[in-house]
Structures are given as C-alpha cells and as structure tokens.
Automatic annotation (TrEMBL):
Residues 109-160 form the Phorbol-ester/DAG-type domain. The lineage of its organism: Eukaryota, Metazoa, Ecdysozoa, Arthropoda, Hexapoda. It comes from the Eukaryota. One of its GO terms (cellular component) is membrane. The keyword Thylakoid does not apply. The keyword Zinc applies. Residues 200-285 form the DAGKc domain. Pfam families: C1_1, DAGK_cat. It comes from Cacopsylla melanoneura. This is Diacylglycerol kinase epsilon. GO terms for biological process: signal transduction. Keywords: Kinase, Metal-binding, Transferase, Zinc. GO terms for molecular function: ATP-dependent diacylglycerol kinase activity; metal ion binding.
C-alpha cells in the first residue's frame, strides 16, 4: 500500500508525464499538420511538403525550403511558404478560384504562380530549357501547368487553354455560385449553374474521397487532383456529404458526360454508389 511519502514522489512524476503527453498532442495538432484547409489559415489549401527529393523555395521570402515540419505548399495552385510566410501568401498571392464573374465567352488568362512545380512539367514553354532549379524561382500556370522562366514570361501568350487535361476541367468562368450567410461571420456558397465551355471533347471529372479514411492515400489523391482540376471538382467527404457533392453534378450540361472517381476504400465506394442509387442518377458503366 502506498504511503504518503510515496505519493509525494509519484505525483510529480505523473504530472510531468501528463504534461509531456499534452505537449506532444498540441505540437502534432498545430505544428505537424499535414493539411491546413482553406479557411484555416486563409484562402489557400495548404499541405505539408513531404517529398524530400523536391527542391522548393518559399514564394514569399524566396528562401530555400529544407523539408522541415513547418513548410507547406498550396495543393490547388502550387504556392510554397514556410509557416511564418503563410499570412503573406494568403494576403498577396491569388489562388485558383472555383468561380469568377467573367463571361464564359471571354478567354481566361494564365494564373502564374511561383513555388511547387510538378516534375513532369519542368521545361520552359518558351525556350524549352529546364525550370525549377535551385536559386531560381520560375513560374507555372495553376490551370494549364505550363512552366516558364522569369525572363521568358513576357514572350508567352496571355490566354490560357487549360492545358492537356482541359477535357476534364470545369472552367471557373462556367460556374455560377449562390452565396448565403451562415452565421454572423461566415458565408456558404452553393453551385446553381454550370455552363458548357464549348470545347470538344468535354467529360468533366468529379473526384470524391475521404482524407481520413484508410491509410491516408485518399488525402494524397485529393491533393493531386486539386492541382489538375478546378478545386470545386474535388470533394472531401470528411467535410461534405455525397448528396451535396453529387447534387451539382446533375447541373453539368448533358453534352458533358461527367466522370466520377471514388478515392477511398470499399466503404467509401459503397457510400458513393448507394448515394447515386438513392438519388436515381442516370449513370452508365
């Protein structure tokens, strides 16, 4: 049986151990998060850089990022920043918008970003020399994924054609949103119309997945497709229901047959299929 003098020794040890566990939990929650979604730290969708083979530079301070726990890139547009520069990136660097108040007949311009470039698009579209080398921050269009050197950028056309994956993309100037106030400080947007962009072929791809399911592969799939598509087309089922995601799929013009990709395990796929069945959506195998 424990004596009073034993408790006087055990209690400080227990308290110290408890504080250690709490500190570890808080560190993992606030400083080791793999994903900082839009609205958490601004208008970019920040994801922690985990590819140690990739050389990146901060898009704000232009310092070389050395793959520590506080370095992120926006998986929608590719902007990179360390944690202290994220507020500056949110304030001064535009991200891909899911909808713009621009006529669908008006050509979209490139959205040039500097930061995390995809490996397969690392040649300058003008001079065909290598981009994304250390000590040199080049540009990449967040929509068409073309890369260009700073000196070559004035030589490239302003109009963006949405690149090699355009048949899968819903352009932001073809999306109409309705915004309603949700509470005192927040607003929630709903898709009410999707217009035909007018190009052929056009088979918009909708990606549904759950970043919390399985071993985390769903999160990587969602992150990859946010870079390739309109972020509207990539739905995290941890935040939205399949019904909400699939509702606006029915708004796609009949000429554009939508493709639905389920990113997850058997449970996620079954959830999506059951929702499609309950909504009586017309699907083809």
């Amino acid at each position: 049986m424990l004596q009073l003098e034993d408790l006087q020794f055990v209690w400080p040890v227990f308290l110290a151990f408890s504080l250690l566990l709490v500190s570890k939990h808080l560190y993992q929650k606030f400083y080791q998060r793999d994903h900082l979604p839009k609205g958490t730290l601004g208008n970019h969708n920040w994801t922690r850089i985990t590819d140690v083979s990739k050389v990146c530079q901060c898009s704000v301070c232009e310092m070389l990022l050395m793959n520590n726990l506080n370095e992120y890139y926006c998986d929608c547009c590719g902007v990179c920043a360390d944690l202290k520069c994220i507020p500056g990136a949110n304030a001064n660097i535009k991200c891909k918008q899911i909808s713009v108040t621009q006529d669908k007949q008006t050509a979209m311009k490139h959205l040039w970003t500097r930061g995390y470039m995809l490996l397969e698009t690392s040649l300058c579209d003008v001079c065909e020399e290598e981009c994304d080398v250390p000590n040199q921050i080049d540009f990449q269009c967040a929509w068409c994924l073309r890369t260009v050197h700073t000196d070559c950028k004035p030589k490239i056309a302003e109009v963006c054609d949405f690149g090699p994956y355009k048949k899968f993309v819903i352009p932001p100037n073809c999306v109409t949103l309705e915004t309603k106030r949700a509470g005192v400080r927040f607003r929630k947007s709903h898709v009410i119309t999707i217009h035909d962009p007018g190009w052929t072929p056009w088979t918009p791809l909708i990606v549904l997945g759950n970043r919390k399911s399985g071993n985390g592969d769903g999160s990587h799939v969602l992150s990859t497709f946010r870079r390739l598509l309109n972020p509207l087309q990539v739905v995290d089922l941890a935040d939205k229901s399949p019904e909400e995601a699939l509702h606006w799929v029915t708004l796609v013009p009949s000429r554009g047959q939508s493709l639905i990709l389920a990113a997850g395990g058997d449970g996620t796929a079954a959830w999506i299929l059951n929702t499609i069945h309950s909504m009586k959506m017309d699907v083809s195998q």
